[in-house]
């Protein structure tokens, strides 16, 4: 049984931890409001841009006609798949990072079982240890986000430019983006999205933009400009969704940790009081026994 001194030290230690988790919970809650607003504001724009790209692409012989951009037409192969895994640089966010990595690992296993070659491009550093251990030698690049306090469009541009360069250099045939879509502080959904080449839905409507229009100079020329921008926007949306998901997961995890610390403090306090009462009772018995002996 622990001594009174040991119990007192443990109670003090848990109380200190509880103060930290409570502070982190409040910080995450404050950041969540801003991150959620940014993620929700980005959704309509990214969805609309995808619809416009799909509408234009459907006019170009299913996206594979003469003059179609490689970002739309593809390489003509389906051999090498690049999994772009967006994680955070910090922990203490529950299963946020682990769930994204789990989704990417499941996709990698599926592709490898089909005889495909799999490579990883990492955004953030938390997923690297698990992926490197599970798929050694398959990480081809990593984008460092440690210097950024929150996602920026310039970060998405840099990642998009690097991915596009790798694609045009023949480093991969298909790129899949993995991130966590924010639904609430309690629910974040690991999501996969094919970003290169642009995936055109089978039911894509060539008039989805709301009217029959003539394009000048041409659909191909417009797509040449829109396709790289669409990749950037989709990556930026993923980073914003991740940021909101991370803050929500962190707030929930720190709230649970704070509650657990409170429960542990109560248990230790009860144990301390019982031990203290037992010690006092023992001292009284010894005093009484000594008096009677006199």
UniProtKB/TrEMBL annotation:
Enumerate the GO terms in the molecular function aspect.
ATP binding; proton-transporting ATP synthase activity, rotational mechanism
The record's InterPro entries line, in alphabetical order, gives: ATP_synth_F1_ATPase_gsu, ATP_synth_F1_gsu, ATP_synth_F1_gsu_CS
Q: Which GO terms describe its biological process?
A: proton motive force-driven plasma membrane ATP synthesis
Q: Does the keyword Phosphoprotein apply?
A: no
Q: Which GO terms describe its cellular component?
A: plasma membrane; proton-transporting ATP synthase complex
Entry membrane topology: Peripheral membrane protein
Stored CDD domains: F1-ATPase_gamma (cd12151)
What subcellular compartments does it reside in?
Answer: Cell membrane; Membrane
One matching Pfam family, short form? ATP-synt
Keyword annotations:
ATP synthesis, Cell membrane, CF(1), Hydrogen ion transport, Ion transport, Membrane, Transport
Question: Per its database record, what is this protein's job?
Answer: Produces ATP from ADP in the presence of a proton gradient across the membrane. The gamma chain is believed to be important in regulating ATPase activity and the flow of protons through the CF(0) complex.
Quaternary structure and partners: F-type ATPases have 2 components, CF(1) - the catalytic core - and CF(0) - the membrane proton channel. CF(1) has five subunits: alpha(3), beta(3), gamma(1), delta(1), epsilon(1). CF(0) has three main subunits: a, b and c.
Please give the PANTHER family that the UniProt record associates with this protein. ATP SYNTHASE GAMMA CHAIN, ATP SYNTHASE SUBUNIT GAMMA, MITOCHONDRIAL
Q: Which family does it belong to?
A: Belongs to the ATPase gamma chain family.
Q: What is this protein called?
A: ATP synthase gamma chain
Q: What taxonomic ancestry is recorded?
A: Bacteria, Pseudomonadati, Pseudomonadota, Alphaproteobacteria, Sphingomonadales
């Amino acid at each position: 049984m622990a001594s009174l001194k040991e119990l007192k030290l443990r109670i003090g230690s848990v109380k200190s931890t509880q103060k930290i988790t409570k502070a982190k919970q409040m910080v995450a809650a404050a950041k969540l409001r801003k991150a959620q607003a940014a993620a929700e504001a980005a959704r309509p724009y990214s969805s609309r841009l995808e619809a416009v790209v799909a509408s234009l692409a459907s006019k170009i012989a299913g996206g594979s006609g003469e003059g179609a951009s490689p970002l739309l037409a593809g390489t003509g192969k389906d051999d090498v798949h690049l999994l772009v895994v967006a994680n955070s640089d910090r922990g203490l966010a529950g299963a946020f990072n682990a769930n994204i990595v789990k989704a990417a690992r499941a996709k990698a296993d599926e592709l490898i079982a089909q005889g495909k070659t799999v490579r990883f491009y990492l955004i953030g550093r938390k997923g690297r240890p698990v992926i490197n251990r599970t798929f050694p030698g398959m990480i081809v690049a990593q984008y460092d986000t440690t210097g950024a306090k929150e996602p920026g469009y310039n970060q998405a541009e840099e990642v998009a430019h690097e991915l596009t360069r790798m694609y045009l250099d023949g480093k991969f045939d298909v790129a899949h983006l993995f991130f966590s879509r924010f639904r609430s502080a309690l629910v974040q959904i690991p999501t996969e999205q094919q970003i290169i080449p642009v995936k055109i839905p089978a039911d894509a409507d060539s008039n989805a933009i709301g009217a029959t229009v003539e394009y000048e100079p041409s659909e191909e020329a417009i797509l040449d400009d829109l396709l790289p921008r669409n990749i950037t926007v989709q990556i930026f949306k993923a980073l914003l969704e991740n940021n909101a998901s991370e803050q929500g997961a962190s707030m929930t995890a720190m709230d649970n940790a704070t509650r657990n610390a409170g429960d542990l403090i109560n248990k230790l306090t009860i144990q301390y009081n019982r031990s203290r009462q037992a010690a006092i009772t023992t001292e009284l018995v010894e005093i009484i026994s000594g008096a009677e002996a006199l």
